[in-house]
Design brief:
Layout lengths: L2 H24 L5 H5 L2 H34 L5 H13 L2 H12 L6 H8 L7 H26 L3 H8 L4 H12 L1 H16 L3 H6 L10 H11 L1 H26 L9
Helix pairs in contact: 1-13, 3-7, 3-10, 4-7, 7-10, 8-9, 10-13, 12-13
Pfam family, one: BPD_transp_1
GO molecular function: molybdate ion transmembrane transporter activity
Family: Belongs to the binding-protein-dependent transport system permease family. CysTW subfamily.
């Protein structure tokens, strides 16, 4: 490999890997289990797992139809719709939290109606955590499923149509099984992104232990008073991220060489 390529590559690898090695080197391994068994850690971990799973389920229900519309329909303005759907990918999460607050807050566009008619508020509740995570994570699912739909052979769908199957039956019995690996990969990415969400959650849901304090928020809080606890919590999230990559390795490194999206 030419030196002008090798040297920057080595520097880039070091830049990405050294911080992760720092977590492993500085981790209080002898105190790991006591740190993990603290009540607040268990609460944050359970809330993170439950909220990320619920956000992924909501993303599947809403995101798969969106991906189908983007990949298969002839709806005018699909490029605009795609841009709007993928905005949360590049939008700062804190801005997303502010936007959710302006829509669903007590004085928001929809939140005002919920409060006045049903005396119900969404911000600073566990529901707000799920909504914030869904907002930032669903685009990952949409992109993955849209890519799978575009790569799928449409002739199978055409054959089903010639045999008398309607669009819903074709989608359920033919299209969905064809793109199932893409849906699974998108769901895993969506779940991992929801698990690591911080900015939109703390802005829209707050940081209340047992109610809205997820693992990333617990890391931020522990870093101010218990650095070793913050390292332990960070290790948990690191291992979850590595597990996610291992689950997706076959899709990334498969024979086709096709990218995830």
């Amino acid at each position: 490999m030419p030196a002008p390529l090798l040297v920057p590559a080595l520097v880039g690898v070091a830049f990405l890997v050294l911080p992760l090695l720092g977590l492993l080197i500085r981790a209080p391994w002898s105190d790991l289990w006591p740190q993990l068994t603290q009540p607040q850690v268990g609460q944050a971990l359970r809330l993170s797992l439950v909220s990320a799973t619920l956000a992924t389920l909501v993303s599947l229900v809403l995101g798969v139809p969106i991906a189908w519309v983007l990949a298969r329909s002839t709806l005018p303005g699909r490029s605009v719709l795609r841009a709007l759907v993928t905005v949360p990918l590049v939008l700062p999460p804190v801005v997303g939290g502010v936007a959710l607050f302006l829509v669903l807050g007590r004085q928001g566009i929809l939140g005002r109606y919920l409060y006045e008619e049903f005396d119900y508020t969404i911000p600073f509740t566990t529901t707000a955590v799920v909504i914030a995570e869904t907002f930032v994570a669903m685009p990952f699912l949409v992109i993955s499923v849209e890519g799978a739909l575009r790569a799928a052979d449409a002739r199978f769908e055409d054959a089903a149509a010639t045999l008398g199957a309607n669009r819903w039956t074709t989608f359920r019995r033919v299209t969905l099984p064809l793109v199932a690996p893409g849906v699974a990969a998108g769901a895993v990415l969506c779940w991992a992104r929801a698990l690591g969400e911080f900015g939109a959650t703390i802005t829209f849901a707050g940081n209340f232990p047992g109610t809205t304090q997820t693992m990333p928020l617990a890391v931020y809080l522990a870093l101010q008073s218990n650095p070793e606890g913050a390292i332990v919590l960070s290790l948990v999230l690191l291992f979850v991220s590595l597990a996610t990559l291992l689950l997706l390795r076959d899709r990334w490194l498969g024979r086709s060489g096709a990218p995830l999206a």
